[in-house]
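To: structure subgroup
Subject: Chain for Friday's discussion

All,

I'm putting the inputs and outputs inline so they're searchable in the archive.
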Amino acid sequence: MAAESLEGLALAYPQYVKLVAGAQAVARKDAPVAGKVGVLSGGGSGHEPMFAGFVGAGMADGSVAGNIFASPPPQPIVAAAQAIHGGAGVLFLYGNYSGDVLNFDMAAEMLEEEGIHVSTVRITDDVTSAPAERREERRGIAGDFFVIKAAGACAERQATLAEVTAAAEEANRNTRSMGVALSSCTIPASGKPIFDLAEGDMEVGMGLHGEPGVERAKLKSANEVAEELVRRILEDMPELANSEAAILVNGLGATPLAELFIVFRAAHALLARHGVTLRHSYVGNYATSLEMAGCSISLLRLNEKLKQWIAAPAQSPALIQI
């Protein structure tokens, strides 16, 4: 399924991406770009348009896909990195999951042996997956989008590998996300839901692969859900108050866009009460869990550098920003 999906993406958007020979991966159509840091994202399939949909000018240079909810093996990661390497090194960007860490680290060692320098940023935006004092253990969810956007914009300016890595770290450090699931999803290979959720219940703080959240509660309105997610993010990052930010209201696959706009409306009002000025807003399906119903909110606290990187032009299958 994953290979066919990537092939379909490349056929639908040849103006942005191309398939990487010998790997379950795509690269931007003009890769490799000489003298440019190659930004490589990736992870399990089932989260479309994350990650392959964010490959293109001003975004990632390539993306490698594992099977549904499974990390890509090291060899395809190596092949994808080779396909985008323009001589200035490669930055690995991926969510902080044990399988991804193992396989991307192995690939990095293999590439270093070939003389291709690799840097890594593991994305850790999910506030519910570990306490603040162990933030490096948190998993990456929809906030991956902001980190890819910042790193891609920085790399597009022919920055060094150290500078692009620092841009990704800056975005990751200032991003927080939290989600809520209203239904499970079904893995195609098994044909069974990945978890059970009673009618009228919701999972607060769940992960993109159905990882348990912080509580199972009775279903609430879109306004109440937005307030719950924003409140917990603000508690985790109090410095967000009275600052400028970018927001992503992300659908998990089965939530109508109309409902996501209701969530955004409520989040916008709550953030305004805390003095948060939204400079960039994104609403839609950016990081899904197959056909799961629910949503997540990601907030990026902006500084001068992040403002420039988030505002920079981008052209990819899932994001066109001019």
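Points worth raising on Friday:
The radius of gyration is 18 Å.
The mean pLDDT is 96.

D.
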